[in-house]
Design a protein that fits this description.
By secondary structure, the chain is an alpha+beta fold. It has a single domain, classed as Nucleotidyltransferase, domain 5. The chain is built from five helices and seven strands. A three-stranded antiparallel sheet has the order 1-2-3. The longest helix is centred in the first third of the chain and has 14 residues. The relative contact order is 0.20.
């Protein structure tokens, strides 16, 4: 997650590990556990099961209802050790990149879901050296095509 000014707003961020595809979801009013799980369930409904094998999260209270994902959706949920962001490097890097559009200290309620979609679209279209100059979007599309076979 990225947190807005005075901890009043947030955006939920997800990164698919094999392709690097980045997603961000607006949490305009709060980032309590009920709201976060609601957004994650909506994401699960829209994501092919082959592209969602597990979820790794920080130890924040926003994941207090993680059992909904584990028991209700069969999605294994893992938690990082306290103060160990290096255990989720792709997500930490993604959050750093998103801060270009959503700087620290700004109220994230000032941005719409379309703003988050635009920022992720730009990031997902950039060629990446680590993927042989393919973009995350291209890699994700290729993985989806393989999963459909």
């Amino acid at each position: 997650m990225i947190i807005g000014a005075r901890n009043q707003s947030a955006a939920l961020t997800l990164v698919e590990r094999s392709s690097g595809l980045q997603l961000a979801y607006q949490l305009p009013n709060d980032y309590q556990a009920d709201r976060v799980i609601e957004v994650l369930v909506r994401w699960l409904q829209d994501t092919p099961a082959e592209m969602c094998q597990s979820l790794t999260w920080d130890r924040g209270t926003e994941m207090a209802h993680w059992e909904v994902l584990a028991n209700g959706w069969g999605l294994p949920v893992f938690f990082c050790d306290p103060h160990a962001p290096w255990q989720r490097p792709k997500n930490e890097n993604s959050n750093r990149q998103l801060r270009f559009w959503f700087p620290k200290g700004t109220d994230l309620r000032d941005y719409s879901q379309a703003d988050y979609d635009h920022a992720c679209g730009v990031l997902n279209a950039q060629p990446r050296r680590q993927y042989g100059l393919q973009s995350a979007g291209e890699r994700y599309a290729g993985a989806l095509a393989c999963a459909d076979r």
